[in-house]
Design brief:
Layout lengths: L43 E4 L2 E4 L15 H20 L1 H13 L17 E5 L7 E5 L5 E6 H4 L7 E8 L5 E8 L2 E8 L6 E4 L7 E2 L3 E3 L5 E8 L4 E8 L8 E7 L5 E6 L5 E7 L4 E7 L8 E3 L8 E6 L2 E6 L7 E6 L14 E4 L16 E3 L4 E7 L2 E7 L5 E5 L6 E5 L10 E7 L5 E6 L2 E7 L10 E8 L5 E8 L15 E5 L18 H8 L3 E6 L9 H5 L7 H16 L8 E6 L2 H11 L6 E5 L5 H6 L19 H7 L15 E7 L8 H13 L6 E6 L4 E2 L2 E2 L3 H15 L5
Parallel strand pairs: 33-34, 33-35, 35-36, 36-37, 37-38
Antiparallel strand pairs: 1-2, 3-4, 4-5, 6-7, 7-8, 8-9, 10-12, 11-12, 12-13, 13-14, 15-16, 16-17, 17-18, 19-20, 20-21, 21-22, 23-24, 24-25, 25-26, 27-28, 28-29, 29-30, 31-32, 32-34, 39-40
Length: 735
Amino acid sequence: MKHVRRRLHRNLSSFLFLAVNFAGLGGAVAAGPDEPKAPMHAFSVKVGTRTISDPYHWMETLWGQPLQPELRTYIDEENAFSREYFSKVSSLRDRLLTEMRARAFQPISAEVSSPTRDYVYEVDAQNEDFPRLIRRKDSGAQETVFDTAEVFSDQEGYASIDAWEPSPDDSKVFVFATLNGISRHFVKEMSGRGEMREFDWDVANKDWTKAVVWSADSLSFLYTKNSVLMNRGSIRLRRWNDWNSGDAVVFSRENDERSYLSLTKTSDAKYARIQVVSYAYQDTFLVPIDGFTSRPIEVLPHGNLWFTDVDHDRDRFIVMTNQGSRVHSIFAVPDRAAKNEVVLGKSNCVIRGSIRNPIEWHYGYEMPVYAFRDFFVVVRRFKSNPYLELYSKDFQLLRKIRFAGAHFDLNVLPNQPYGSDSVLVKRVGLLVPETLYRVTLGGASEIERTKDAAASETYREEKIFYPARDGTKIPLTLVYRPKFGERSWRDLRNRKIYLEGYGSYGSNFHIDYDNGWNRAYALSLIDRGFVVAIAHIRGGAENGFDWWLQTRGAGREKVFHDFISAAEFLIARKTTRAKDIAIQGYSAGGLLIGNVLNLRPDLFRAAIINAPYLDAIHTEMDGRIPQAALEWDLWGNPNLPRDLEMMWPYAPYEQISRQVYPSILVNTALDDWNVLFHESTKYVARLRSCRVGRTPLYLNVLSSDVGDHDGTYGKHEEDWARNFAFVLDAFGIEK
């Protein structure tokens, strides 16, 4: 149910996807004028005093299991029904696709990924379907490290290079590659015989790895081994010169379904950083990389709702923790690793977070403090946007660096040399092209900017704040093309709105051109008069840790009402009118959109729900579903009567009722183990049987060889074109 292959929690993105290539689902089915109708089979389960009836329970299929014939037939009928519809809007879809491809650009990929300055590693994507990893020296000499076209020469489809990790001496590189959604792992030797070994992972037992840390001598590495079911995990050690021997277990987490393991390294590359991550706590352990012979050192004791991260700088630890508070602080303590002591207390607190000026919260990822030999970089937020603070080694504030824009991400590029006197930062904005900066104590200077066909001067972006139902001010970003006389958003009248949101996992609404907000696509709506609106609702972390903490458990309904309040605010201001709003949600955003449609269907014209989490009760009840138990600390455990009653009001599938719903398009994939496809098939089947009237309702199920949680392999512009064709058609726009 969660987006684990690239990020453990559901992709903080609002990625649109759709494909109508349904190969492998049993062949074409003749499409008729009638909507598909799924059979009902009696089923009920009792929890406490509540009996839950589910006539579509028979559709539930564990990940990797074959489809039963009755379900295969139903999916074929739904795909044929949607295929017939999209054939009628094919000219509009093709026009959108042409526009999007004309705006295509090559994202900046000059990410420094070597512990030394000898090499810079980057992905060369001239062959879009089969990129290669290259490295070059400062002199410009370039060599190929890993070529997916050669490695996968006997196979067709779409490949990607998701990550890589060079050894400290650059003699070897660990490469995470994907072919048609299936992860593969390789270690390439860049010296000696140039040998390449595939690193096996346990597909049969659904184990996966997504991180490695090399030893100081480049002869061994630690790697994660997590179960998809989240019932076990370990950090293991493999040696290059003893490749086929059994791997040693350095750290383990067995029979604990409510956490997973993360592995990174400290900025100075002195320690491997092991994190036990759950939605109730985050504990951090350190292992020296000098051969990985020491046992892990715990940083701070374990505590409920304590989320701790740590970096290392020379002879001290830099710790970020809330330590039971609703805000985070950063403090420094001496490195007592030689005595293997637990770091205790808040000695020498250097930076305190606040609700108004929070420290960036990277849940389950690297902490927002980056240590270099002569200074520290800290990522903070103001009015939901990130900015940088540069500190001296004794934590005296030297400089603040802010960037313009209504909403953007700042990414401090990973693995930059510890001894560097500058830091590379990538700014990704809604309209401003992706830009790479070199940041020093003197300020930020631009190094590189993407070249794309979008003229940002033609468009406008603004961030405003609207009141939620309880009075909390919620950020709302608007992107539009102003008409004559429109000097700001206050002048907008009777516009069509495309409203997006997420509000889950403490994950901000990210701008990521691979799987997030994409200017090349969204401008097709904006050019047709739409205002694209992003509601930065609670449940994310745009305003810090507390922004997420408010929505855990019984506070979850704040998320849905925050989103509804955004629509009501725009209607009250006459920016738009009821039924002139289309909405979209992805993954956990499906829980958002599903609830909003149940609560206020009268506000919206159309809805797109992608890879959606919709069946919260039945999914969280079943411990056999990947990561269900992991999320009990977030949503609740419906096997417990008290939690069931808490979750019941915001379970979209259960709350479908007899009322008129807007036009809805639901997209899912058979090979999606982050959110299992049957959540979508059950939702559409129940919605068809309950809704009043015959407003358009379509379900598209991607076959396993076509796509997964992210949509169609390598064909995202086609996904967006089809989805936007659905939106425009719902508004009666033909061109």
